[in-house]
Amino acid sequence: MSLVRWTLAALLLVSVHVVAGQIVSNDPAKVDADFAVQGEYTGEIPKDGAKTKLGVQVIALGDAKFHVVVHNGGLPGDGWDKNKKDEIDGATADGVTTFTLPQMKIAIKDGSMSVSDAGGKELGQLKRVIRESPTMGLKPPPGALVLFDGSGLDEWQKGAKMTEDKLLCEGANSVKKFGSGTWHVEMRLPYMPYARGQGRGNSGVYQQSRYETQVLDSFGLAGKNNELGGIYEISDPLLNMAFPPLSWQTYDVDFTAAQYENGKKVKNAHMTVKLNGVVVQQDVEVPRSTRAAPLGEGPEPGPMHLQNHGNPVRYRNIWFVEKK
After folding, report:
1. What is the DSSP letter of 298?
2. Could you report the per-residue pLDDT of 12-44, keeping only the tens digit for each?
3. pTM for this model (two decimals)
4. At CB < 8 A and 24+ separation, what contacts does 42-47 make?
């Protein structure tokens, strides 16, 4: 998984869209000052006579307030030892964002994070990074059905919408219906620093319009079934691989449809899910359709459904390979 540093030039603040007093942006060029602080940081600091890697996630909460999550060993999917995380709130004052934990102090200024011990002695610098999924931009293999490549909405039912920059909006249903196969979907979740929980970048990718792989701004959260990477109400992800909002992210789903004999289900659906190139659901049995699914369980194939939950989630590069 590649790591590419963000430059300050990429963080130019052009404008901010405000709805009911809250910032809602689906464009990285239209954000607030907090967006330049939020994100992932990584680097090494001394510990017990050796160097230890840290991965730090900083989540914007609005009004120059933030929540920080510290991972020993590195970021999730990039070295984190999966032991207890350290978390605390902080804020920006006079251009510096600070967090004070029992064992360390963190200060962020101009895209760089300084880590000090409890006494104030600097231990090292961490750099702000942006990660890219290894399956980002993955081209459809021969025989794949391309559902969306920005060229139009022919593969989508009436009501589907495409933005001026040729991205697919949430709230779309495919024309064709599908059984077992492999899906590739790329998505960008909005920046909504004042929103919380299920109100923050919510959508969903429904296999056969029945089984939901959740879409949600889950950056820095615990990693539950109602968060990004989760099979909604069925299975927590093995790891929270959510990137910050306004990063392009990928779902790669190997889906096996439920099997029926004489109208009776004899085998449940199964899914293996990769989020940003990392397996977060390994051959998970899905015993029922999602509670809010447009289509109930049955032997017939079903369309792909991209849920509209009232948040401006964008999609691109969607394709399907049928399982023979």
Report:
1. -
2. 333 344 444 578 898 888 999 999 999 999 999
3. 0.91
4. 42/3, 42/74, 42/75, 42/78, 42/126, 42/127, 42/129, 43/113, 43/115, 43/124, 43/125, 43/126, 43/127, 44/124, 45/115, 45/123, 45/124, 46/123, 46/124
